[in-house]
Write a structure and sequence with these properties.
This protein has 335 residues and is of the alpha/beta class. It has ten helices and 16 strands. The chain starts with 6 loop residues before the first strand and ends in a 12-residue tail after the last helix. The structure holds adenosine-5'-triphosphate (ATP) and magnesium ion.
Length: 335
């Protein structure tokens, strides 16, 4: 029976997002924790752990247990999930809510089972899993329950997951190791090489969001970027323009589009022609990269749109199954 505190959860490699029935998105934290290496104790979770990045004493490590779509550390993932989920649903054992959860594409069945048992320990009576590609497509309002082929591209932090879906399931899928983090790294490399200017990941992300693009901005825009001059070792501020950041991102963006092309080539012809007609939908935080849809349309010659609420499509897709199970219940699995 449905309960008021049933939840939908996107267990992402960089962020965990939780939706609660009737309330909407109630929780969003980085999938990170901080460990004391001497005692092996966990000392912080989520945003608090993330804030320690780069400024922690040497006995503390910051761990992202789900980096790049694979579970690097199983026990830590479970501990993190238990901590976050029990914090959201509260430990009320008489009302054990239900959950629909999407997990990174690459994880194995045995890992899925352990996650479900971690959810049980966190107070969730029953957890059902939804394929992440299916969740993203549902959240993007794609209609793939019929025999018409649809393509969704989820551009996340650590990778980009792509899928062609029809008849309510995934027909062809692929994942490329280019996500927002790789774009940030490309900006760091570019500024170091061109100006001997070393910037941190956070600054690179701001530069990407403010100046970055998959097409050139016209007119170009500029931003003052502060980093460390590698020759003098001193802080230095430089005025960087959007054409430079476009150049820095070009190779990664091209690799991403090439990955899409390869997947379309692997798609059975009847669905490939549906995609040429119906186009591609972009989801994930990276879908907001300036001009990405335009660049894809230009190179691949197929229509491309950014989904509404692109960065939350995975959790909203899980929420959809939670709220309107009729017609989509068959998409779920219990493992
Ligand atoms: N306006 C923007 N332009 C370009 N990139 C952006 C923009 N806004 C957010 N991003 C990027 O989107 C990425 C985060 O996307 P998203 O929230 O989908 O990732 P995630 O769900 O945490 O990843 P995962 O599913 O791997 O856990 C970050 O790399 C962020 O820098
Ligand atoms: Mg995600």
């Amino acid at each position: 029976m449905a309960q008021a505190n049933d939840i939908a959860i996107d267990l992402g490699t960089s962020n965990i997002v939780i939706y609660m029935k009737g309330k909407g998105i109630v929780f969003r934290e980085p999938s990170a924790l901080a460990i004391d290496r001497n005692t092996q104790n966990i000392i912080a979770f989520g945003a608090e752990a993330n804030r320690m990045t780069g400024r922690v004493p040497s006995n503390i490590s910051i761990i992202r247990p789900l980096a790049q779509g694979t579970m690097i550390d199983f026990d830590l993932t479970n501990a993190m999930l238990r901590y976050f989920v029990s914090g959201v649903v509260g430990r009320r054992f008489l009302s054990r809510p239900r959950a629909v959860m999407s997990v990174p594409v690459g994880i194995k069945d045995i890992e899925k089972k352990a996650l479900i048992s971690a959810m049980f320990d966190a107070g969730i009576r029953r957890t059902q899993l939804l394929d992440k590609n299916v969740a993203a497509a549902l959240g993007a309002q794609l209609n793939f329950l019929g025999s018409y082929g649809c393509m969704n591209v989820d551009f996340c932090a650590g990778c980009t997951d792509m899928a062609v879906l029809y008849n309510g399931s995934v027909s062809v899928m692929s994942s490329v190791k280019i996500g927002g983090n790789q774009l940030d790294e490309a900006i760091v490399r570019y500024l170091r090489k061109k100006y001997n200017l070393l910037i941190g990941e956070r600054t690179a992300e701001q530069v990407k969001i403010s100046l970055g693009g998959a097409v050139q901005r016209d007119p170009a825009i500029v931003m003052d970027v502060t980093g460390r001059n590698l020759l003098s070792g001193l802080p230095k501020t430089m005025r960087i323009n959007s054409d430079e950041i476009y150049e820095a991102l070009l190779e990664s963006v091209n690799d991403l589009i090439e990955g899409m092309q390869v997947m379309i080539e692997r798609t059975p012809p009847q669905f490939a022609s549906d995609i040429f007609e119906g186009g591609v939908t972009l989801t994930g935080g990276g879908a907001a990269l300036y001009g990405l849809a335009e660049a894809i349309e230009k190179v691949l010659g197929i229509p491309c749109r950014v989904a509404e609420e692109a960065k939350d499509c995975v959790v909203l897709g899980c929420a959809k199954v939670l709220n309107e199970p009729a017609g989509v219940r068959h998409l779920l699995s219990d493992v």
